[in-house]
Amino acid sequence: MEPRIQYAKTEDGVSIAYWTLGEGAPLVDMWPNLFSNIQLEWEAPVWRRWYERLAEKRKLVRYDCRGGGMSERKVTDFSLDTHVLDLEAVVDHLGLEQFALLAVTDGGPVAITYASRHPERVSHLILWCSWTGEGDIRDSTQFQALNALRDSDWEVYTETMAHVALGWSEGEEALRFAATMRESVTRETLQALQRGSEGTDVTGLLPQVKSPTLVLHRRGVPFPDMEVAKRLASRIPEARLVLLEGTSLAPYLGDTEAILRAIDEFLGEGEEAAPAASDLPEGLAVLLFADIAESTALTEQLGDAAFREKARELDTSLRSVIRECSGTPVEGKLVGDGVLAVFTTARQAIECALHCNAASQPLGLQLHLGIHAGDVIREGNNVYGGAVNIAARIASASAPGEVLVSDTVRGLARTSADVAFEDRGEHELKGVAEPQRLFAVREQV
Q: Most CB contacts within 10 A, which of 219, 339, 349, 364?
């Protein structure tokens, strides 16, 4: 489900665009450069997967800084303090008393400044390939060449900058990022922002950062070099440094799982462990089964690698939708390309099924969707029992893009779900002794 873009107003009257995703302890992901665009990023599959994964265990907050992206463009002041105002506007508007900060590249100086001023509000600080000021990257020959190119040829600059930042092997993603850059900021505004950052240096604030801090850095990035990361980690009290392989400044490319594991472990320290599926009580559950329609034909048509990539992307989206609808996706292995989810109410399961249908459409895929309610047995991270089998068989009986429910579910949701039920009669389901009366869900007009 696409997050809703909203706006917060800074103390100096600038409108800052933001969205939130997921539930739980808040994590503010900040990229205070003008290449940020929270709408276009969500439309890019690799970027969207990164955000969905970050939001699996927490509430993710993402915003565009002043002058670029979806935020107000007509601004002239790009000093460090105004970027701090952007961050303050969003977290205060959302009423976040305490939150974790993930600062990417040039977000470092802003995050360090805020954390030093408000140690009681920043529960954790994460710095990704970041620095304390322009002096940390000014000597890079690539950085100097890019600045010269920026002033002479804007389109060539964006294409080159995208390849340098993301990696020269990332052809398609670099072209997408270059287009995002051109749509998000003008050359003149970027020049104004970089003039505003000249002389910025928060090195003196590093000893004042009291929040637990994780410094993440890839060894092969074009800038900043590894010595900058070491200096950050050595000067922030009790900070830890994690060095990773790779050349891309984009955390959503390359070995993203290593980054996400490091972030999850760092943010998870001191938190109560979330209940595993095996900790949930046995008994009555509402079960939603979603399976990709015509997967065999699609594999032959697209090729195995392309289909599996689409299937993985859809799986990630569906699990995110399930959690947003207060369901629990079952993590155990399932036959075929299915996703099984458990809900406490039939209304939640039906709403989720409709949202799952919407999530599959941008990928050009369709789903078989079936819902049943009954007793389940939990074992490890999976659920078993006749009710699970019936939910899967009901899904198989549905047409692509259709939500079928059992008579049991219809009875539970008849007065609570704002939908209509179309009687499809009794069906003989494979492996189910008694015929099941099924109903198709129809959204109310």
A: 349
pLDDT of residue 281: 42
Q: What are phi and psi of 299, to 5 degrees?
A: -60, -45
Give the number of domains in the chain. Answer: 2
What backbone torsions phi and psi does residue 212 show, to the nearest 5 degrees? -55, 130
d(CA 182, CA 36): 11
Please answer whether residues 385 and 374 qualify as being in contact, where contact means their C-beta atoms are separated by less than 8 angstroms. Answer: yes
Q: Are 72 and 34 in contact (CB under 8 A)?
A: no
Co-location of 145 and 289 in the same domain: no
DSSP class of residue 411?
H
Q: Are residues 331 and 416 in the same domain?
A: yes
Contact criterion met (CB below 8 Å) for 190 and 74: no
Percent helix, strand and coil across the chain, each to the nearest 5: 45, 25, 35
Cα distances (angstroms) measured from residue 149 to each of 159, 171, 190, 195, 324: 11, 20, 13, 16, 44
Beta strands in 95-208 (DSSP E): 99-104, 122-128
| pTM over the 0.70 mark | no
Beta strands in 271-364 (DSSP E): 283-292, 328-329, 338-343
Q: What percent of the chain has pLDDT over 90?
A: 46
Calculate mean pLDDT across residues 273-285: 48
Residue 1 domain flag: no
